[in-house]
Amino acid sequence: MSDRYAVIGRPINHTKSPLIHGLFAEATGQALEYGAIEGELEGFEAQVLQLRSEGGLGMNITAPFKLRAFELADRRSERAQLARAANALKFEDGSIYAENFDGIGLLRDIEQNLGEPLRNRRVLLLGAGGAVRGALLPFLQAGPRELVIANRDMAKALTLRNELDHPRLRISRYEELDGQAFDIVVNATSASLTGELPPLPAGVLGGARLAYELAYGKGLTPFLRMAQAHGVARLADGVGMLVEQAAEAFAWWRGVRPETRAVIDRLTIPLE
Ligand code: ATR
C-alpha cells in the first residue's frame, strides 16, 4: 500500500491539492496516495486522528480549519505560531507537527517565478487576517526596505505589530497611504471573494512593478483592474502561491523538492 496523505476543508470539492500532489508524485517517482476529505464542523479533530490511525503520514488543511489544526498539533513551527494557523500537518514519531507554508509559498512565487526579489523593495500588504499573518515572517526575512500592512480595522493591525516588533515593519490606515509609492503590492484581504475593492487611495499603485492578488482563478479582480488602469507592469493571481506552498509541503513530507513550473502552467487560468 502506498503512503497516504489528504487535504481537508469545508467545502472541499474545488480543491486542486490532489491534482497538484499527484503531479508532484508522478514527476518525482514517489509512491503516494493523496485524497480530499470534506471536513465536519463537529468532528474535524476526529477526522484528522482517524487518518493518522489508518497510517496516514500528513495532511493539508484549508478553510475553515487552519486554526483548529494548529491547536491540535503537539509541535508547531515558528511561522505557524505567528500565523496561529496550520496549512500542513505531518504525523511522525507519535507527534503531530504543524507548519504554515502559505507565506513562504507566496514569497517563492513572487521572488522566483515572477522574478521580483523583495530585498530593498517597498512592499505593501493589504489586510491583517490569516493570509497576512502567514506572510509576515518570510517577507521580513527576505529583507524589504519597508513592509507596510494596511487594514481597515487598525486594532487587528496593531495586534500583529505588537506580536512582531521589527524595524522594517509598519502598519498604516488606508488613507495614510495617499501619496506613497510601493514596488510590490499584495492584496491579501478577502475583498476579492465578494467582488469588492480595498479602499486603496488611487495613486498608490502608480509606480508598482507587481500587483499580486492572493485569490486564485477569479480573473481580473477589482484590485487587479485598478492596478492595470495604473499601468502596473505585472499582474498576478495566487496560482503560483498555491503550487509553491504545495511544493513546500511535499518536500517537508517526502524529502524531495518537486519542480513547480509545469504544474503552475497547467493550473493557470488566464486573467482575461
Ligand atoms: P484570511 O484568513 O483569508 O486572511 P480573515 O482572517 O477573515 O481572512 O481576514 C480577512 C481580511 O480581509 C481582513 O484583514 C479584512 O479587513 P478588516 O480586518 O479591516 O475587516 C479584509 N477585508 C475583507 N473585506 C475587505 C474589503 N472590502 N476591503 C478591505 N479589506 C477587507
Per DSSP E runs of 2 or more residues, the count of β-strands stands at: 12
Unreliable segments (pLDDT under 50, ≥5 consecutive)? none
Taken together, the total number of domains comes to 2
Q: Kindly provide the radius of gyration, computed on alpha-carbon positions and rounded to a whole number of angstroms.
A: 18 Å
Order of helices and strands: EHEHEHEHEEHEHEHEEEHEHH
Beta content: 15-25%
CATH topology of the largest domain: Rossmann fold
Count of DSSP-assigned helices: 10
Percent in helix: 25-40%
What structural category characterises the helix and strand content? alpha/beta
Main traits of this protein?
single chain; 272 residues; alpha/beta; Rossmann fold; 2 domains; six-stranded mixed beta sheet; six-stranded parallel beta sheet; 10 helices; 12 strands; 37% helix; globular; binds 2'-monophosphoadenosine-5'-diphosphate
Describe the overall structure.
A six-stranded mixed β-sheet has the order 2-1-3-5-6-4, with helices on both faces. Strands 9-8-7-10-11-12 form a six-stranded parallel β-sheet, sandwiched between helices. Helix 8 (222-229) links the parallel strand 11 and strand 12 (234-236). It is an alpha/beta fold and 272 residues long. The chain folds into two domains: 3-100 and 240-267, Rossmann fold; 103-237, Rossmann fold (3-Layer(aba) Sandwich), CATH 3.40.50.720. The longest helix has 16 residues, at 239-254. It contains ten helices and twelve strands. The structure holds 2'-monophosphoadenosine-5'-diphosphate (ATR). 2'-monophosphoadenosine-5'-diphosphate binds next to helix 6.
